[in-house]
Amino acid sequence: MDGTVLVADDDRTIRTVLTQALTRAGCKVRATSNTTTLWRWIEEGEGDAVISDVMMPDGNGLDLLPAIRRKRPDLPVIVISAQNTVVTAIRATDAGAFDYMPKPFDLRELLSKVSKALSQSGQSLPPVEPPSQEQDAEIPLIGGSPAMQEVYRVVARVVNTDLNVLILGASGTGKDLLARSLHDLGNRASSRFLRINCGTATPDELESEVLVSAGQGATIYLDELSELSAQSQIHLLNLTQSDTVQSMGMRFVSSTSRPMQPLINDGLFREDLFYRLNVMPINLPPLRDRIEDIGPLTQHFLRLCAERGMPLKTIAKSALEQMRVAAWPGNVRALENFVQRLVLLCPDDDISATFVAAALKEEAEQAAPSTPLVTEKLSASVEAHIQRYFDLHGDALPPPGLYNRILREVELPLLALSLSATRGNQIKTAELLGINRNTLRKKIKEHDIQVTRTKKLM
What we know:
Rossmann fold; Helicase, Ruva Protein, domain 3; globular; alpha/beta
């Protein structure tokens, strides 16, 4: 790489890492911890590319972007941010960022983007309007995991386009919420959002809803596209091709929890209609692929419970760890339902790991099939869990300290479930585990397990 890169970040470690990596790659680097110095360098004509954090001591990097685009429209800016929300991604894109990367970022990927930015430096782009500040008031999608960050980046690129979108994901992953966000966070927010249930919509209802009720610039949300009848598919294809729909600037956002290609192969869904609606696919990950988000989602659902008139509860860190290692076949929806039950059934203001363990055990018992299953060994389950953890980091390695973290994750549910089985009786728990009471007390303290005598959940 050849060129000068301006780096602005208030974290000294990040400045040092980026300076060293960019220098080794052949770049000249100027680094600062504030927006004031960054803007002075830009005004003086310094730099061929910029890497800028969002939140800095003297300002917001996103607020500076429109001014940079007006002053130096040929200067590419890569935004990096620990504010890992869809709103941040959209605001960065709307403000004219060359690219956006959430923290923590992959250094090799960032260097690749810098190389691309330097190769395009000097190509003038049109100025943009300042990003809307109103979007910060409500964050519709929760989670900062790598899997959700990829969703945010795609959303940021398509939210203000006219491209039809197909949302793919298992039941309970939040497809309806994402469809609504694509409408509310974009330039169609003042137009109508029309939801159509594809499983029950007749051809006449489709035509009536779209042509009569939708209106200019509307978003037509086709919920569970795979359930559309053959006759309705024909009508919908004609609608997407009609002059009326195109002149009114309508956009189709569809969702499906079933793979579409097998339906197309079997002649159950029209291929021409599929490709009209599947211009930009967005894959929503299942909860098992975004376990880092279980904590933020749980806190979000606790706040929602309080807003809906239920008791205001907090949850212990060790209880969240319990929930992180649990299976959630119903995805985010199942997690929300579980949190609501915790709020209503837990007698204490703070939900403990012991209470969560008992609730998870009862959930598993209620969901267990009546016929016996061949269960896999504990070692196989642990191996699958660790492999998934490695997969979440892609080509990079997980943070140091993996050995102790894995042991802690295994030890915590063992202690919590044992305490639950004895209803919090530490003498019986120590006997059950085959350890002395002092060791048990030490482990309870280390894992911050709140021990209470509990009654069986109803």
